[in-house]
Design goal:
Elements (H helix, E strand, L loop, with lengths): L4 E4 L3 H13 L7 E4 L4 H11 L2 E2 L3 H7 L2 E4 L6 H8 L8 E4 L6 H8 L4 E6 L11 E5 L5 H11 L5 E3 L5 H9 L1 H18 L4 H21 L4 H8 L5 H11 L2 H21 L2
Parallel strand pairs: 1-2, 1-4, 2-3, 4-5, 5-6, 7-8
Antiparallel strand pairs: 6-7
Helix pairs in contact: 7-12, 8-9
Bound molecules: NADPH dihydro-nicotinamide-adenine-dinucleotide phosphate (NDP) and (2S)-3,4-dihydro-2H-pyrrole-2-carboxylic acid (A1CAB).
Function: Catalyzes the reduction of 1-pyrroline-5-carboxylate (PCA) to L-proline.
GO molecular function, one term: pyrroline-5-carboxylate reductase activity
Pathway: Amino-acid biosynthesis; L-proline biosynthesis; L-proline from L-glutamate 5-semialdehyde: step 1/1
Length: 271
């Protein structure tokens, strides 16, 4: 790729994506630029860590880029776009990773027929294992989708979805890593409470998550079938799963994903 990419926002999501792109070496690191609102120290650190260009003047960065990645919090999108809209050019591609915010809203804030793509990566981008969903806005065509896929495929597999599905996607794969980490935290706590060394617990649980993930990816079998293979009748797994069932695990997880989806919809409602 021979484009200049500018990140508007230098938070954890921007950093995860930048780390992935830098590691993939698909373009010179000097083609990657980053700006934020006011935290100069953060910009300096990112420049130092990734050898990218930190630019404190957001408008100047917008002028210098082909692709803009909008990575501010949803409630900052309006102010951010207002401050740069005069500098956005029709040939640029704007990619937003902001949860809940629609491409129509972004287009209306920009006030021109600029191509807008919405993407939902997750923080596993930092190790190039993000699950990223991509949806096209009304001014984006197949070329823009391909461009976004090329960019985000450097941080893990991409999936093109309909924009209306983005709220659900956010509830499963955008927020999903946090659910897994929460599960791991609880398993570590249980292991340590039973006397296992923290380091040992962490090593075993981490590999268990990686192994289960690889099984899900590589096996023909469904999650349910894989689970049943581990559950010997009246064995240890059965005892554990029965406890989860008694405490309505499935219902809780469904509620969890629904709440995240609902929150994504609410974030979009400020439009
Ligand atoms: N964290 C995650 O796992 C995921 C997050 N997302 C989405 O990514 C977006 C960013 O999230 P996250 O990285 O966690 O947020 P952070 O709060 O960590 O970062 C937000 C960044 O936006 C900058 N910013 C705010 N206003 C402006 C402005 N007017 N001009 C330029 N920069 C501005 C902030 O600058 P300063 O620090 O100077 O104020 C900061 O660098 C969110 O919309 C979120 O929905 C999507 C997928 C996953
Ligand atoms: O919690 C959030 O709002 C963001 C969006 C997806 C993951 N984190």
């Amino acid at each position: 790729m021979n484009k200049k990419i500018g990140f508007i926002g230098a938070g954890s999501m921007a950093e995860s994506v930048i780390a992935g792109i830098v590691n993939a070496e698909i373009l010179p690191t000097t083609n990657i630029m980053v700006t934020n609102k006011s935290n100069k120290k953060r910009l300096e650190k990112m420049e130092e860590d990734y050898n990218i260009r930190a630019i404190s003047d957001t408008k100047r960065m917008v002028d210098a880029c082909d692709i803009l990645i909008l990575a501010t919090k949803p409630h900052d999108v309006q102010a951010t776009i207002s401050s740069i809209k005069e500098h956005i050019r029709s040939e640029q591609l704007v990619i937003s990773v902001s949860a809940g915010i629609s491409t129509d809203y972004i287009s209306s804030l920009i006030g021109q027929d600029v191509s807008v793509i919405r993407a939902m990566p997750n923080t596993s981008a930092a190790v190039r294992q993000s699950a990223t969903a991509i949806a096209a806005g009304k001014y984006a065509d197949e070329t823009h989708i391909k461009e976004a896929e090329e960019l985000f495929s450097t941080i893990g597999p991409t999936t093109v979805v309909k924009e209306e599905d983005m709220h659900t996607v956010t509830g499963i794969s955008g927020s999903g890593p946090a659910y897994i980490y929460y599960l791991v935290e609880a398993m570590e706590k249980a292991a340590v409470e039973s006397g296992l060394a923290e380091e040992t617990a962490r090593k075993l649980i981490t590999q268990t998550v990686i192994g289960a993930g690889n099984m899900l990816k590589n096996s023909e079998e469904s999650a349910g079938e894989l689970r049943k293979k581990i559950m010997s009748p009246n064995g240890t797994t059965q005892a554990g799963i029965d406890t989860l069932k008694r405490h309505d695990f499935e219902k809780i997880i469904i509620e969890c994903v629904r709440s995240a989806r609902q929150r994504s919809m609410e974030l979009g409602e400020r439009e």
